[in-house]
């Protein structure tokens, strides 16, 4: 308990916390991001309806406008879609999938990118040249194109039933594998600086293994920029997932995300039922914008030149 109190006290006295509370935009972004995350995680408890429980759907309630409209129903605060599903509940459940894919894809690309960058920067020579050329080649292709390619190969190689069962993992892998070069290049540059410092040379002299030096000495000192890239990469991963789902190659229909909801609502956008697409789109914009603003603040807060 004392250790926890001490750690909390150090955090509240840190420059990072001082920078955070001095920025109203950052505080507001953190509050919005927290609301989005809690709304998604606690959707089964907070959502007015379960939009994916077929037994509770009623086609008579389809195309209900938002509650404040003339024909609105308070039971559906943001209206209902073509199947009678509550749009607000669908957004909360869809945000769960979008956040899950985004977080897992960023974690996957972070692990791969940090490992490759750490090895390339510390080993140098031919290993560095080979790994960075692979990263350079991948950076010439748009990330969404790589994700589409991976998903297309998975659809062609796997039976439809098998692909539907693992579609969520395929999307996570497709988005994650397209983003690792950013992590690798950043970690590689920081490792090139750290590997020639005195503490690394001293560790070599006393006989510590190269793997241990990389993991326990170099790695903790190159993670600062990685946190910034991961924060900004989260918003990019959420957008990539929404794009794939909008194109119909993302998560399965049984696990719709915000991109899927926007695609469904797009069919009714010009027939008067605008709320089916607009509100999921607004939710996606708010989520991505709040994460981006937090990433911008973290980048500036960790930059010693701006202190």
TrEMBL record:
Main location: membrane
Pfam families with a match to the protein in the record: BPD_transp_1 (PF00528), OppC_N (PF12911)
GO BP terms, alphabetized: transmembrane transport
Subcellular location(s) per record: Cell membrane
Top-level taxon of the source organism: Bacteria
Gene3D superfamilies to which the protein is assigned, alphabetical: MetI-like (1.10.3720.10)
Membrane topology recorded in Swiss-Prot or TrEMBL: Multi-pass membrane protein
Transmembrane segments: 25-47, 97-122, 134-154, 166-187, 274-298
Location of the ABC transmembrane type-1 domain: 95-295
Gene Ontology cellular component list: plasma membrane
Keywords of this entry: Cell membrane, Membrane, Transmembrane, Transmembrane helix, Transport
Record-linked PANTHER family: ABC TRANSPORTER PERMEASE PROTEIN, OLIGOPEPTIDE TRANSPORT SYSTEM PERMEASE PROTEIN APPC
Family listed: Belongs to the binding-protein-dependent transport system permease family.
Record-given protein name: Peptide/nickel transport system permease protein
């Amino acid at each position: 308990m004392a250790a926890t109190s001490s750690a909390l006290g150090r955090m509240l006295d840190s420059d990072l916390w001082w920078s955070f509370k001095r920025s109203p935009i950052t505080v507001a972004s953190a509050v919005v991001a927290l609301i989005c995350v809690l709304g998604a995680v606690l959707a089964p408890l907070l959502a007015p309806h379960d939009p994916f429980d077929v037994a509770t759907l009623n086609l008579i309630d389809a195309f209900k406008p938002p509650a404040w409209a003339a024909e609105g129903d308070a039971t559906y605060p943001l209206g209902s879609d073509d199947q009678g599903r509550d749009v607000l509940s669908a957004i909360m459940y869809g945000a769960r999938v979008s956040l899950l894919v985004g977080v897992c894809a960023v974690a996957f690309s972070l692990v791969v990118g940090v490992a490759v960058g750490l090895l390339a920067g510390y080993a140098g020579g031919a290993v560095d040249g080979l790994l960075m050329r692979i990263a350079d080649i991948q950076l010439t292709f748009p990330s969404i194109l790589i994700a589409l390619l991976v998903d297309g190969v998975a659809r062609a190689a796997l039976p439809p039933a098998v692909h539907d069962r693992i579609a969520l993992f395929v999307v996570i892998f497709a988005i994650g594998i397209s983003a690792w070069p950013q992590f690798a290049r950043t970690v590689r540059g920081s490792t090139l600086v750290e590997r020639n410092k005195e503490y690394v040379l001293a560790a070599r002299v006393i006989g510590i293994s190269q793997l241990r030096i990389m993991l326990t000495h170099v790695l903790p000192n190159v993670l600062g920029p990685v946190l910034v890239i991961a924060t900004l990469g989260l918003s990019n991963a959420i957008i990539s997932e929404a794009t794939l789902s909008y194109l119909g190659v993302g998560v399965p229909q049984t696990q719709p995300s915000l991109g899927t909801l926007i695609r469904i609502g797009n069919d009714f956008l010009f027939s008067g039922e605008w709320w089916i697409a607009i509100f999921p789109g607004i939710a996606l914009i708010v989520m991505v914008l709040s994460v981006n603003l937090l990433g911008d603040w973290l980048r500036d807060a960790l930059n010693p030149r701006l202190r």
